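Researcher: I've been going back and forth with a colleague about how PTS system, lactose/cellobiose family IIC component might be arranged in three dimensions. Neither of us has a model we trust, so I'd like an independent prediction. The organism is Weissella hellenica, in case that matters for your notes. Sequence below.
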Amino acid sequence: MQAVSNGQEATNIATQETLYAFSSMGGVGTTLALAVMMLILSKSAQLKAIGKAVFVPSIFNINEPLMFGAPVAFNPYLMIPMWINAIVVPSIVYFVMSFGIVSIPTKSFLLWYVPYPLTSYLTTQDWRAIIIAIIIFVVTWLIFLPFFKAYDNSLLKEEIAEQG
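Model: Here is an independent structure prediction for PTS system, lactose/cellobiose family IIC component. You can compare it with whatever you and your colleague have in mind.
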């Protein structure tokens, strides 16, 4: 911020603002895509119910209900893709900011609970951040999808076994 106020260019990509602009979509671990999947794709009653409960908080980047309700924590089906997202999403953000595709944040913006992609725009003051946020959502969707399907199918088999 000091460099920008002195007429220089922003160069520090790894800031808290950058994290809030892209990497916390749905909460830490970029879990918004997972919450949406649970809401609209779940075949198991358990994940469908969790999807209904976690969707609204996830929009506001609150994912504790998802992390401990699904659960993601201590669940290899869902924890592994979250770890993959923790590598892929910051890599995408670093790439797009280092090549000037999206502006590096130059102001303090610590409103982590503002929904995406609005927070991406407000943090960077760059309309292209909206496009990158949508791309990140799609990428995290694709990363979570096979793991989610496997977990959903395992729960569905359990539910069928309990009924029959």
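Researcher: What would you highlight for our discussion?
Model: I'd start with this: Residues 2-157 form one domain. After that, consider the following. The mean pLDDT is 89.
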